[in-house]
Amino acid sequence: MPGNASNSTDGYDIVFRLLLGVLAVFVPLSHLAWLSGNVTSYLTGHVWAPYQPTTALLHPAQLWPQAGEASLLIGARIVPVAALLALGAAVGLLWIRHKSSGGGRKKKIVGMAKARDIEPLMAKAITDKARSLRPSLKNAKRIDPKDTGVLLGNIQGTRHEVRMGYEDVAVAIMAPRSGKTTSLAIPSILNAPGPVLLTSNKAAGDAYTATIDARSTVGRVWSMDPQQIAHAAREMWWNPLADAKTLDGAGRLAGHFLAASVDASQQGDFWSKAGSNILSQLFLAAALDDRPITDVMQWLAFPADRTPLDILRDHGFTAVAAQLKGTVEGPPETRDGIYETARQYAAALLNSEIAAWVTPQKGVPEFKPAEFVTSADTLYLLSKDGGGGASALIAACADSVMRAATAQAERAGGRLDPPMLAILDEAANVCKISDLPDLYSHLGSRGIIPITILQSYRQGQKVWGDAGMDAMWSASTIKVIGSGIDDPDFADKLSRLIGDHDVETTSTSHSESGKSTSVSMRQERILAADAIRALPKGTALCFATGMRAAMLDLRPWYLEPGSDELSAASARASKAITTRAVAKHAPAQDDFGPAA
What are the entry keywords (predicted)? Predict the structure, then answer.
């Protein structure tokens, strides 16, 4: 008996579905027949029939008795069927395109944040916040969106823009070719209301070429390219010893050379610390005597040179002089090991091409961080991966700019207005500022907005150690996670941060008394670790302090208004880099023609 009841129920279901299918075809087809038949009748000079779609489909001659058989066949049969088939094909094609090109990406995930969940990052709240943070906007009737914050993207599947405010600090972890440059770095630079700092290890086809033309219309463009990534002409020099006239400042400068050469796990050993200490003492001596940084390499080559000792004593740094003397007069094998370690850290200064960027150059303007932070200028700091001492200079310059911005903010009442944007792209390769995690705790409150872009969480751990990277992650008020997260532990950590949601489970059982259905609830991850790993390009997760995680559709610059002009400018800048590279490496010419 139970089996018969089940078969009977299944039969009813099949009949019901067939009936729905017939209606789904018959209703639109009959209306198309009535409309097409009337159009045909009108075109042939006859009257418009009353609204009777069923009769039009089944008995068209009753509605249009004066029409010929050919007209009825075409108007009430062929045209409606063709129109229905075309409509079905169009719907099917749109569905296939939706599923293949964007359906999966646009599909909303149950449990992720909606607009109301991240209201502080929405247009109204972020605009109100901008008025309170920036005195220059307090009485403005209308505020341009770019003056309110950095655009991160849209809430997935909607037009709701999500922005980080000009008091937020951010970390973005995005794999190569996942949109970190096209959707985050470039749009942020193009729309920045104040000074912009960018670190990068690429030039052609990257943020450098895409923004340099546009930013040159806003303010002056400074490019520091010691390893000739963009083959830029040397139109600036910067004095790294300007901030090294105190023991703390000299120690910070030496720390940049240490961080660029040694991973965080090795910076605590004897030779690393001793080499860094010698560098800081010699940097201090050179700065106090207004010497170029290259003099330090001469002192390292000849430890017996008493010049730095005399300078330190003359300026009252007797304790530092005593420490330096103790090292110089210590056991030769120890002294030689310490000095050789310091030489390795600062070896890039032996390269005259690199040293020219950080020593006075006749007719070349000096870049001064204190003036930069009050302007609308742009500073591009370029260095190759593993640049050693060259990347140390990049990190030192970026650090000097952020410290100058902090000092200016304090003089201005606490905050920069307009704020300064610091895009630290490839930070783990070319901008290893050792205490950057500590700086994150107060930069945002000064109107200094850092966005540190990494390829993976482990990359940050390698540079700043586990504790340092955890500190930066915790201090970041905005965290953006793009596609390409292949670290299972980190993916699981993100999955747990996103949380769980209730899933309704329905179960059906059959018994002699009939069919019964029960509903129960269970907890399920909103986004499992494997789903985070499989995030499609063009999407990103956004974690904001005190708010639910949101899924974003990124906004690449090349899909925004005005992208054609920017693309053309980027192409010109990339071509100019190629031209300069070819000219630089072309065979030398002499009176007898090209060199062999």
Answer: Cell membrane, Membrane, Transmembrane, Transmembrane helix
